[in-house]
Design goal:
This protein is mainly alpha-helical and 123 residues long. It has a domain of 86 residues. Helices cover 45% and strands 7% of the residues. It has a two-stranded antiparallel sheet with strand order 1-2. Helix 1 runs antiparallel to helix 2, helix 1 packs parallel to helix 3 and helix 2 packs antiparallel against helix 3. The protein starts with 36 loop residues before the first helix and ends with a strand.
Length: 123
């Protein structure tokens, strides 16, 4: 009685040896980098500030600025992605807050605007 030959060594995927000059597949997953949550929140809140009901009181834009600065700190060392989102949220938030402040100053100092009860009417 003869014994069957031993199976070939398992060197690559599917039990086949890789062609000469190629390294076998290691099978180890690479570390995935994640987006900074603060950078995403900064961009989303700044874009929410574009909705007309927030034009008078720009709270989303202000939060977008705060989260943008935090997102920039989190993405400084390239451990997380999203630096562009943080910058975009920061810029959009600053522009929205500056426009809201300019409109409020105009309404409060203009002779064309009259306060009528709880509302202000500008002509």
């Amino acid at each position: 009685m003869s014994t069957p030959p031993p199976p070939p060594p398992h060197n690559g995927p599917g039990g086949f040896q890789p062609p000469p000059g190629y390294q076998p597949y290691s099978g180890q997953p690479t570390a995935a980098t994640t987006n900074s949550g603060m950078a995403v929140a900064s961009l989303v809140l700044s874009l929410v500030g574009l909705v007309p009901c927030f034009w008078g009181l720009q709270i989303p834009g202000l939060l977008g600025i705060i989260f943008g600065f935090i997102g920039l700190k989190q993405t400084k060392d390239n451990a997380r992605r999203g630096r562009g989102m943080a910058i975009a949220g920061l810029v959009i938030g600053i522009i929205l807050v500056l426009i809201a402040v300019a409109v409020i100053i105009y309404v409060l100092t203009s002779d064309n605007c009259v306060r009528d009860g709880s509302s202000i009417v500008c002509t």
